[in-house]
TrEMBL record:
GO terms for molecular function: ATP binding; hydrolase activity; RNA binding; RNA helicase activity; zinc ion binding. It comes from the Eukaryota. Residues 56-231 form the Helicase ATP-binding domain. A motif (Q motif) lies at residues 25-53. Belongs to the DEAD box helicase family. DDX59 subfamily. This is DEAD-box ATP-dependent RNA helicase 41. Keywords: ATP-binding, Helicase, Hydrolase, Metal-binding, Nucleotide-binding, RNA-binding, Zinc, Zinc-finger.
Length: 238
């Protein structure tokens, strides 16, 4: 325990919450599917970044997280790696019907595309398909893609609500709800839409990330999951 605290101090990993797993120093000690680790190596992920060291084992344990870490610190991988791992393992045991297992929301179409690009690289060769559900593209084509069977939906709130209210997609198998740029997603403007989607899901694990997290957002996030773990990377109280 003391060692864990020393390690966190050295890596500037600050945590709040009960029973938080120790940071991992290598991807190989996370119990990830071998193909996923291979894909990560191909993508140049040799060592986990500090945010990944702490967030990945906690997410793999099924814990809900609110995480802040600087831009460029590897937050996308921190949520995609546990999502891909869960999806691949779940599909080995239960393959049909192939309904989405995870939803990740971001504020913009461009960010969604970036997240999907990383997801495709990391999930290559695994039972892991993604669908983009964003404005600006024909809705029928996106719906068709989802109905063909995907594991992860990456979207903006408005377009996903369009599909949900038409009762065109089934989200009852969703186990993980990810919010990238959560500081923006839980601000006035997006908050009601995000909450509408969240309440349509059955108590998913929450993975929420941002470069900065306001006290307001921390409060809302704590109400969404009673046992949330809060992680921030960098000097405390900066
Ligand atoms: P942000 O924290 O701003 O969301 P990103 O997740 O977009 O940052 O990551 C920034 C860049 O770092 C991306 O190009 C990503 O592929 C790369 N990256 C992420 N994790 C690692 C890692 N463990 N090793 C090497 N590169 C990584
Ligand atoms: Mg990011």
């Amino acid at each position: 325990c003391d060692q864990t605290e020393l390690l966190r101090k050295k890596l500037e990993i600050n945590v709040k919450g009960d029973v938080i797993p120790a940071p991992v120093l290598a991807f190989s000690s996370c119990g990830l599917p071998q193909k996923l680790v291979q894909n990560m190596e191909t993508a140049g992920y040799v060592m986990p970044t500090p945010v990944q060291m702490q967030a990945i084992p906690a997410a793999l344990d099924g814990q809900s997280l609110l995480v802040s870490a600087d831009t460029g610190s590897g937050k996308t991988g921190s949520f995609l790696i546990p999502i891909i791992s869960l999806c691949a393992k779940f599909r080995q045991n239960f393959s049909n019907p192939r309904k989405p297992l995870a939803v990740v929301l971001t504020p913009t179409r461009e960010l969604c595309i970036q997240v999907e690009d990383q997801a495709k690289v990391l999930g290559k060769g695994l039972p892991f398909k993604t669908a983009l559900v964003v404005g600006g593209d024909p809705i029928a084509r996106q719906l068709y893609r989802v109905q063909q069977g995907v594991e992860l939906i990456i979207g903006t709130p408005g377009r996903l609500i369009d599909l949900l209210t038409k009762q065109d997609i089934e989200l009852d198998d969703v186990k993980i709800f990810g919010l990238d740029e959560v500081d923006c997603m839980l601000q006035r403007g997006f908050r009601d839409q995000v909450m509408q989607i969240f309440t349509a899901l059955s108590q998913p694990q929450l993975l929420m990330y941002s470069a900065t997290i306001s006290q307001d957002v921390e409060k809302i996030a704590s109400c969404m999951a009673s046992d949330i773990i809060i992680v921030s990377i960098g000097k405390p109280n900066r």
